[in-house]
């Protein structure tokens, strides 16, 4: 599911630098399979006893446990992806800082020792760093990595939401999905009321 | 062997003064919570859910009959239009006889996440404008939209042309493909469906991040250095704190609205190509035939002039004016420059096209 991450290098060539190593990917998949296998088997073996209390909390706890372990394993994969994207993000910032600093040192080789030179060199420093970083933030490489960084963060948030929902469900409490349905329903009700109000009170329209 | 470092005494004095200023700062500046950003008195004349319609008290005897409704942006709050008595856009308009209303979008919560362009344009905005038309006994009103409020005002005028007498667009977001800002660059690579599905509304934190990379060294370093340097300048400090409070108060944007805005305006560029649909109706910019004033700023790093200017050429209005100012996004509406240059030209344009009482 992950792909190689490219970063913007000094000469703006795209270099593949990071991805989840295949052996890590494989061991995660093996772990997921083994874990789910035993969870399923234990669930099946204990299912008969659980059906006796089908409306009670025990059955829900068993289902919830499986859901939580699946989500945790999948979240680990996304955390790896997130960390790779975050590393690429900081590398882009660090590389740009180094380039800007090099250019600044070339233009201002000596530390200013009087007020006038200090002000001038501060201006050069700000302008130079501003230019280098604006160029980075304007680049498609930065935006692409940033977009994927946010996406991977959202994936983690999604798993977290799913885990929370599983726990809320087991406690017979409304989940995010339930609340979304309520919001959606309220939204369409409001629209219908507004439409009806406009029909019954058309004087200003 | 000894080495000698020569330092200009002035430099040393400057450094010591700066340190002293930093230590004195808490005694000389108010904290953000101690500042009230409301300057000019107003009355809430209409409200619907979190949206409020504000009517500002007149400050001139003679007034233009055609009222002006300002549709503020979705990012940050409306206070930037009235940030300081000496730089207040609203106060200036009032003293020149303009009857000013402003739509405050409020602070949406998760319950508002399904609200989109249709709800904002055909719902909230239309209801506010109908209210003003009724209260002022005017069939038509002048509409000013700022930033994303400019996008909403454009869509509104295209869909409800008979209710608008004059349209003023100040740094509107129109042609996302041409926008050369960092905002647009990030927006084009955003998986907005996933964002909205996962978190509901667009979180303010994302907006703060975007602000932080716009001019990171000027805004993140020099601005604060200058603040401490000028800590004894009461007016400078007050203005700084007020603007900082405004910058750091951005409400979430309803998920559905944010999704459509990013997709239709930045990613698929549907608005300028007349292919955007709102409430099941196609938004054709050719439907806009009212007098149009477009104001853009050359130094705008949030909405580049190339993004705003295409509206001038896309509408069918015969009476249209494009003004380009040597300032920035906020400088256009809340600066000494806007008071001296932008507002007088704006009011002159408006008064030539408004009915007098």
Provide the residue-averaged pLDDT of chain A: 82
Sheet-strand content of chain A, in percent, reads under 5%
The portion of residues forming beta strands of chain B comes to 5-15%
For the termini of chain A, the CA-CA separation is 53 Å
Report low-confidence residues of chain B grouped into runs of 5 or more: none
Largest interface, chains and sizes: A-B, 38 and 41 residues
Radius of gyration from the alpha-carbon trace of chain B, in angstroms:
22 Å
Instruction: Describe the sheet with the most strands of chain B.
Output: 8 strands, mixed
How would you describe this structure to a colleague?
The complex is a heterodimer of chains A (205) and B (357). Chain A has 205 residues and is mainly alpha-helical. Chain A has one domain. In chain A, 79% of the residues lie in helices and 4% in strands. Chain A has 6 helices and 2 strands, in the order E-E-H-H-H-H-H-H. Chain A has a two-stranded antiparallel sheet. In chain A, a hairpin with a 5-residue loop joins strand 1 and strand 2 (14-18). In chain A, helix 1 packs antiparallel against helix 3 (57-107), helix 3 (57-107) crosses helix 4 and helix 3 packs antiparallel against helix 5 (140-170). Chain A starts with a strand and ends in a 5-residue tail after the last helix. Residues 1-17 of chain A have low confidence and may be disordered. By secondary structure, chain B is α/β, with parallel strands linked by helices. Chain B has 13 helices and 10 strands. In chain B, strands 1-2-4-3-5-6-9-10 form an 8-stranded mixed β-sheet, with helices on both faces. In chain B, strands 7-8 form a two-stranded antiparallel sheet. In chain B, helix 3 packs across helix 4 (148-159) and helix 6 (192-199) runs antiparallel to helix 10 (255-267). The longest helix of chain B has 20 residues, at 9-28. The radius of gyration of chain B is 22 Å and the shape is globular.
């Amino acid at each position: 599911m992950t792909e190689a991450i490219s970063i913007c290098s000094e000469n703006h060539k795209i270099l593949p630098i990071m991805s989840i190593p295949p052996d890590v990917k494989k061991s995660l998949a093996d772990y997921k399979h083994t874990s789910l296998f035993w969870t399923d088997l234990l669930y099946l073996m204990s299912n008969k006893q659980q059906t006796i209390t089908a409306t009670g909390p025990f059955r829900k706890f068993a289902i919830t446990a499986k859901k939580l372990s699946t989500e945790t394993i999948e979240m680990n994969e996304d955390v790896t992806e997130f960390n790779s994207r975050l590393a690429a993000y900081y590398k882009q910032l660090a590389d740009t800082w180094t380039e800007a600093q090099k250019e600044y040192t070339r233009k201002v080789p000596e530390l200013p020792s009087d007020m006038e030179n200090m002000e001038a060199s501060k201006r050069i420093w700000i302008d130079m760093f501003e230019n280098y970083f604006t160029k980075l933030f304007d680049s498609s490489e930065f935006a692409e990595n940033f977009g994927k960084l946010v996406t991977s963060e959202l994936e983690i948030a999604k798993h977290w939401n799913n885990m929370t929902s599983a726990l809320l469900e087991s406690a017979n409490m409304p989940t995010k999905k339930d609340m979304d349905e309520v919001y959606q329903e309220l939204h369409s009700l409001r629209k219908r009321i507004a439409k009806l109000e406009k029909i019954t009170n058309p004087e200003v329209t | 062997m000894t080495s000698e470092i020569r330092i200009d005494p002035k430099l040393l004095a400057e450094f010591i003064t700066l340190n002293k200023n930093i230590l004195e700062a808490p005694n000389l500046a108010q904290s953000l919570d101690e500042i009230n950003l409301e300057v000019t008195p107003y009355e809430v004349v209409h409200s619907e859910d979190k949206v409020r319609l504000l009517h500002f008290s007149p400050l001139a005897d003679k007034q233009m009959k055609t009222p002006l409704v300002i549709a503020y942006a979705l990012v940050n709050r409306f206070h930037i239009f009235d940030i300081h008595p000496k730089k207040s856009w609203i106060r200036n308009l009032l003293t020149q006889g303009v009857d000013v209303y402003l739509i405050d979008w409020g602070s949406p919560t998760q319950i508002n996440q399904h609200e989109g362009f249709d709800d904002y344009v055909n719902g909230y905005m239309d209801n506010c404008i109908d209210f003003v038309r009724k209260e002022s006994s005017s069939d038509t009103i002048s509409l000013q939209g700022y930033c994303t409020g400019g996008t909403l005002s454009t869509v509104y005028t295209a869909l409800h042309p008979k209710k608008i007498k004059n349209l003023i667009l100040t740094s509107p977001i129109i042609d996302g493909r041409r926008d050369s800002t960092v905002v647009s660059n990030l927006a084009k690579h955003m998986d907005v469906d996933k964002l909205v599905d996962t978190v509901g509304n667009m979180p303010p934190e994302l907006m703060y991040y975007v602000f932080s990379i716009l001019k990171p060294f000027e805004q993140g370093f020099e601005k604060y250095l200058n603040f401490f340097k000028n800590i004894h300048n009461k007016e400078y400090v007050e203005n700084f704190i007020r603007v900082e409070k405004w910058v750091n108060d951005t409400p979430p944007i309803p998920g559905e609205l944010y999704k459509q805005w990013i997709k239709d305006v930045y990613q698929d560029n549907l608005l300028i190509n007349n292919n955007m649909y709102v409430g099941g109706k196609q938004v054709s910019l050719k439907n806009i035939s009212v007098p149009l004033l477009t104001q853009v700023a050359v130094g705008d790093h949030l909405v580049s002039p190339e993004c705003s200017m295409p509206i001038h050429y896309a509408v069918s209005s015969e009476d249209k004016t494009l003004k380009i100012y040597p300032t920035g996004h906020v400088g256009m509406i809340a600066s000494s420059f806007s008071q001296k240059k932008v507002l007088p030209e704006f009011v002159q344009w408006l008064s030539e096209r408004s009915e007098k009482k």
